[in-house]
Structure formats: structure tokens, C-alpha cells
Design brief:
The protein has about 100 residues and is mainly α. About 35% of the residues lie in helices and about 0% in strands. The longest helix has 14 residues. The two termini are about 45 Å apart.
């Protein structure tokens, strides 16, 4: 939500100071948020390529547990320690894009 600057002091207070003597600046415009920039990549963490064996586990896991059971698939097979259930979901999505016959499984 945009930050709204506080109202100017009452008429009896002078010289841009509030009752406690704190100075302030009054602006008539509302500050707008800037869109966040790109998220920086973490240094030192390289991307782990998927092995054929891991791809096989993804296929087997989907056949056994079904799509959407990514945590169960991750728990059942000895994937690389850096793999998460979201990684498995993304890998399956990319495998289906590449080979439409997987979609019927």
C-alpha cells in the first residue's frame, strides 16, 4: 500500500516542527512503489542435471502414485539430495511437454 505522508502541523506550530521539536518535510504527492527487480542467482550453487535414472524414477513414481503426489515420489526414490517435490513436479511437466505420450499415463 502506498505510504501517505502525515498532515502539516497545526497553525500554532511553526518552522516545519511538530510538538516535540522533530523536523519533517511535507509532500503533497504519494510515493509509488517500484516494481522489484530480478531475483539475484545464488552464487556457488550450480544446477544439477537430471540423470536418466532420476527421470525413470519420476516416470515410475507417476505411474505408481499419480500426478500431484510429488512428496510421495520424492520419499520413495533416492533422488539427489538437492531435489525437492517441486523439482519433481517441474521435471514431470517438462517431460510431458517433450513427449506428449506421457500425458496419458
Amino acid at each position: 500500500r502506498p505510504k501517505i505522508n502525515r498532515a502539516p502541523p497545526a497553525d500554532d506550530v511553526q518552522d516545519n516542527e511538530d510538538e516535540e521539536g522533530n523536523e519533517y518535510e511535507f509532500e503533497t504527492t504519494i510515493n509509488k512503489f517500484k516494481k522489484p527487480g530480478p531475483v539475484p542467482k545464488l552464487k556457488g550453487l550450480s544446477r544439477e542435471r537430471w540423470t536418466k535414472e532420476e527421470e525413470g524414477w519420476v516416470k515410475e513414481g507417476v505411474l505408481r502414485f499419480g500426478t500431484g503426489k510429488w512428496a510421495s515420489i520424492l520419499a520413495k526414490y533416492p533422488f539427489n539430495a538437492r531435489r525437492s517435490n517441486v523439482d519433481i513436479k517441474d521435471k514431470w511437466r517438462n517431460m510431458v511437454k517433450k513427449d506428449k505420450t506421457l500425458e496419458q499415463q
